Known about the structure:
alpha/beta; 8-stranded mixed sheet; 6-stranded mixed sheet; 13 helices; disordered N terminus
Amino acid sequence: PGSLVSLGLTPAGSWQEEGAKGSGDDEMTTTMTTTPTKNRYRMAAFDLDGTLLNSNHQLSDRTVEYLRKLHSKGFIIAIATGRSAACAAHIIEKLDLAPVSQTDAGVSRPGFPLVCTNGARGLRIVKKAHSDIIGDASVHAGPATMNRSNTMPTDVRSADETPRNPLLRETLVIDVEMFHDRLTEELTLKVLKLANDLGCMVNYYQGHYIYVAPRNERHLEAAERYKTLTGSDEFFVYLNGVNKDLSAQSFNEANSWGYKEAVRKGLPSKIIIFCDSAILDKVVDDCRVHLNGSSDPCDQSYSYNAHIIRGAPPFFVEVLNPGVHKGRGLVRLCESLDVPLDEVLAFGDGDNDAEFLTVAGCGFAMKNARDNVKALADFVTEWTNDEDGVIRTLQKLEETGKLMLKDS
């Protein structure tokens, strides 16, 4: 098969070579006159918003059809997203990839591999109707049983209301929780205090649910915007009541700045701080100063106490445990699947995809990606997410024999 460069990936989205992970990585950035050590791929991991999904946050029929085709030929499909598992569940349900039994061509792939909440959590999701194919794995056994949040809090849904989300109605279930790195209690309380001092609202991710405590109309607007963006309306729990009474409680240390009930339920996978787009970079710097000691990661006084991500769309900041990101999540996912990283493709567009694109065997930034993300990637796709850029890129790779498929 020909090299990736022979496909014609060019900078800024055309099919020619793009600046890669390192200036000396000739294998990916120049025409290959010899066969690289690993130049074929058996797995692809995708970011969702801005990458696999279009600008309406929908999965196209073309994408579903092609990924099912690749899956049927033994190619591994995975998702790595900033969303929670519940907010990604309807995408997994629409893909509806049939499970591969443990005896099928010697391949063991029980459940859909998912890295969620920006690398804090790794899961394998299985359709309940397929659970008899999984083999020894059980949807009712193992550590995931304790960590599953498959019931809706009573203040969110009435007893006779049927949930729409696949994980809530249990048509999809968590087969295995491979890892889960929650924020420490110390970091959680520091972030809640910082947000309070900045006059910002946070999303507190715990289990399947997102706990919020808006204090004004601007906070409510941010919550509604995020719900629309992620389709997460079933998971929002308003800590100041279903009627969102903005005067219902005070915000102080004694009640964890409005989030005492959420903290009592458990430590979060991540926390999002909402802010106006115009001050996003300032809030990012404030988070770095207050949590890590300096706004400049290169400063000697900078301590890596929290992983801070500039959000996209640009109206929030994400905070995770130090060292938690999609890249680390992909490494741990591949270890669990026994897939070498150099046989993995990664596709992304945002700041939270930086480590994810650089640890994979080959990282593709979308044509619509931020420029700093394009600079880190091995290649930039010719097409945007609204042009099915992921699928059209994979088709090019398949045509040149770059994908490890059962019939190739």
